[in-house]
Amino acid sequence: MENILIVEDDIAFAKMLETFLTKKGYKITHTSSIKNSTQLLNNQRFDLCLLDYRLPDGTALDFLQARRDLKASLPVIIMTAFSDVRTVVKSMKMGAAEYITKPVNPEELMMVLKQISEQEKTPSKTKEKKSKSAQFVQGKSHHAQKLQDFIDLVAPTDISVIIQGESGTGKEYVAMKIHQQSKRAKKPFIPIDCGVLSKELAAGELFGYVKGAFTGALINRTGQFEKASGGTLFLDEIGNLSYDVQIKLLRALQEKTIQPLGSDSLIDVDIRLIVATNDSLTTLVKNGVFREDLYHRLNEFKIEVPPLRDRVEDMELFINHFIDEANKDLQRDVQSLAEEAMQVFREYEWPGNLRELRNTIRRMVLLTQGKIAEADKLPSEMFSHIRIASSAPSGSNLKAIQAETEKEHIIKVLESVQGNKSKAARILNIDRKTLYNKLERYDLT
Ligand SMILES: Nc1ncnc2c1ncn2[C@@H]1O[C@H](COP(=O)(O)OP(=O)(O)OP(=O)(O)O)[C@@H](O)[C@H]1O
Fold first, then answer.
1. I need a labelling partner for 34 at 20 to 30 A (CA). Which of 88, 110, 264, 305 fits?
2. What integer pLDDT is reported at residue 207 of this predicted model?
3. Is the CB of 172 under 6 A from ligand 1?
4. 295 with 287: CB under 8 angstroms?
């Protein structure tokens, strides 16, 4: 990985990055707008792009769209202000490889570059490798238990599964776990990120093609359906597949055969399909972007992966796991987080879920020389984003007052219906799930 494209309109910062990375042996090209960057992408080959989230003529999402249209496959690292993390996690579903928060720490940047360069060396195997070595942390909250029950239930079968959840909640990990617990475990688990596939590329990638099928098809290529035969195919961000490809996918599932582009022959395939989505597929069906017949074919079993903020009880397990992982990768010996940092972690909303937690911990571990990672290693903006601090003096903080009022009201209603949660939810005009989330958040379980 040598050629890096930096797209950044803060010239001083870009210059600093350029100097630093040139010293590290990279060849840097810098531009400060989406328009110029897409022109560059069209004419030159880059190994990686460091992309500012907000640019004068658009956002990272526009760049990612252009990258997809140009069928460029370079990995993209988004550099973002902390306040944009919530939005940036959306770009992960358009295929950004990673994000880092500003101010960018040089060591952190090098760590991410190394990580991505290793993944790129074995592009097709990386995720399979991850499936073999990645440790699945189960958690102990009732959400975690329910999730594991669903996995246990569905894993031994061959039925299709839709995994739904916010970005970074661990949908791919759940898919891997299902595969590992299934009778297909010894066969391949192939994850495909549909978010990065252009319309034209998707059918070829999934079903393969023969030489001459279209301009640029210089050799025969085996599709992922065939490669995954006997095992599990995981289609992440399935909502991004075009209507045409959805038809082909439905046919492949119904007939258990595929037809590579440009070929007359049908190939038998035996795969188990697991798909994931951030968006509700039913909404996509309603909006006419997702085929209803395919939705019904896929919807044999649905698993909802909860956001991290709803499983605070599991946080400590994940924190310890990510500390261990980071210690190994970064040669550190951090044993725990300081209590103040734990407090912030418990109260923060975690819009990027487990991915954000992992990244935050890696950064803290990287910056910690001793055994305890202190709260001053956290991005300072995180403190202003924490939700209702339980210790916040009521009367001084609007969120805390609202929370206290809500909590008191829930207690009152629960008392009036002798603890019957269904009745309470009806009176409160919220669904049962929301009520359970609130009970957990306010420690009323
Ligand atoms: N059960 C788990 N045990 C350990 N680590 C996990 C687990 N689930 C998720 N992670 C961590 O969180 C990261 C994000 O998980 P994953 O890629 O599965 O999320 P996702 O929901 O598929 O994300 P996206 O919506 O962006 O596709 C992983 O790289 C891993 O580090």
1. 110
2. 95
3. yes
4. no
C-beta of 205 in contact with ligand 1 (< 6 A):
no
Tokens of residue 163, six digits: 């995994």
Q: What pLDDT shows up at residue 234?
A: 97
Same domain, 135 and 265: yes
pLDDT at 53 exceeding the cut of 70 = yes
Tokens of 166: 């916010």
- For this complex, say whether ipTM is above 0.90: yes
Residues 59 and 170 in one domain: no
Q: Where does residue 88 rank: exposed (0-12), middle (13-18), buried (19+ CB within 10 A)?
A: buried
The CATH number for 262's domain is 3.40.50.300
The beta strand positions in 183-248, using DSSP E, are 189-193, 208-209, 221-222, 232-236
State how far the Cα of 88 lies from the Cα of 59, in Å rounded to an integer: 10
Q: What is the CATH number of the domain that holds 410?
A: 1.10.10.60
Residue 366 burial (CB count, 10 A)? 19
Say if residue 190 is in the same domain as residue 252: yes
Quote the number of domains for the chain: 4
pLDDT at 305 over 90: yes
Torsion of CA 86, 91, 92, 98, to 10 degrees: -90
Tell me phi and psi for residue 278, to 5 degrees.
-85, -35
User: Do 299 and 329 fall into the same domain?
Assistant: no
Mark which of 239, 270, 304 sits at the end of a domain.
304
**pLDDT value of residue 19:** 94
Rounded to an integer, what is the distance from CA 75 to the centroid of its chain? Answer: 15
Shared domain for 201 and 346, answered yes or no, is no
Atom of ligand 1 nearest to the CA of 93: 26
Instruction: Please tell me the distance between residue 65's alpha carbon and the centre of ligand 1 in angstroms.
Output: 23
Domain range for 249: 126-141+163-304
Per-residue pLDDT tens for 201-253?
Answer: 889 999 999 998 888 888 999 999 999 999 999 999 899 899 999 999 999 99
Residue 154 lies in a domain: no
Could you tell me the pLDDT band of residue 391, with boundaries at 50, 70 and 90? very low
Ligand 1 centroid, distance to 24 Cα (angstroms): 30
**Is pLDDT above 50 for 127?**
no
Is the C-beta atom of 168 inside 6 A of ligand 1? yes
